Amino acid sequence: MAPFAHAQANEDIVIGGSIPMTGVFAFAGIGINAGMADYVKIVNDAGGIKGRKLRYVPEDTGYKVDVSVAAFKKITSQNKVNLYYGDSTGFSKTINPELDRNGQILMAGASFATELNDPAKYPNQFLVGPDYTEQIGILLRHIAKEKPGAKVAFVYSDSEFGRDPIEASEAAAKKLGLSVPIKLMTPPGSVDVSTEVIKLRRAAPDYTIFHGYVLAPIPEFVQQGKQMGMTSQWMGTFWTMDSSTVMKMGEGADGFMGVMPYRYYYDTSAKSPMLEKIRAMRPEYQSTAYTQGFLTAMLFTEAAKRTLDAGKPLDGKNLKAALNTIKDFDTGGLIGTPITISGNSIPVGRVYKADMKAQKMVPASDWINLSK
Fold this sequence. Notes:
- By secondary structure, the protein is of the alpha/beta class.
- The chain contains 13 helices and eleven strands.
- The protein has a seven-stranded mixed beta sheet with strand order 6-5-7-8-9-10-11, with helices on both faces. A four-stranded parallel beta sheet has the order 2-1-3-4, sandwiched between helices.
- A hairpin with a 4-residue loop joins strand 10 and strand 11.
- The longest helix is centred in the C-terminal third of the chain and has 22 residues, at about 290-310.
């Protein structure tokens, strides 16, 4: 019996990953991969967790659900996997019955889909930040404070990602005393938006929130809207808000705002020992996707550590229960306020604003916690 117990104690804790290193989402996948690998290295260099090393096993998926499922099957058949990173909403939903059946794995990933923020339906998954509805909720709370009774427009892509938060966000806006004079849906990545811009100008919103895009057609909307004399404040959600993405919008996007659950790489406005560690490891700018990967690995590690501290086996149920004991947790400053994970999301974020001269995103609000 003793040798088996000893073997268990020294077994690696494996983090598997469906990572889109190629394809349309490669810019994010490359960052996520580096962030996960760096955090694993930090933990292992410090001796691991209770004498056990972390091992990160990623596979490229090209951001395709079938490839991602095949990667999951390959990684889990060759390794004893307890933690897994998924690359998309489609994959997270497709693999969920398998996670429930398998019972050994806690999963997080690139998706902030509102649907996944349901512990009853997705008991072995969590989101590393606010879901899409919560992201817009953070923006709406900021708007209601800045300009009570403001008019807010929603511009979103005709995709599951785009439609996700719209209905609930319209209701949330009304609750906050804001009006929604117009909602516009466009094909994802469309560039000819002249007719939509005319409709938007007629509605004359004080704020326009874009969701379900990365870059196009946001710069086209902003540019044409400004040419037509619109004075709307333009805003985006997580996947638009990486510094390098916003800077690509050009001069016209000065003052562009959006929600970000994490501090930017170059943010030195407050003490952040983890960011200092990252800057020492990687002296060049790291994307918000990198931070998301890094923080995912940190929360995976924390859940594993708490499960082992409680003397329980590392399985999906125990890991998720341990994750849900995280209360007022300090992420080393990656998120600028202590976090509590009571369900499947971390409903915290901050509004940042583009300063084109400095080529940086600067804080435009305090940290907003929707659970408070």
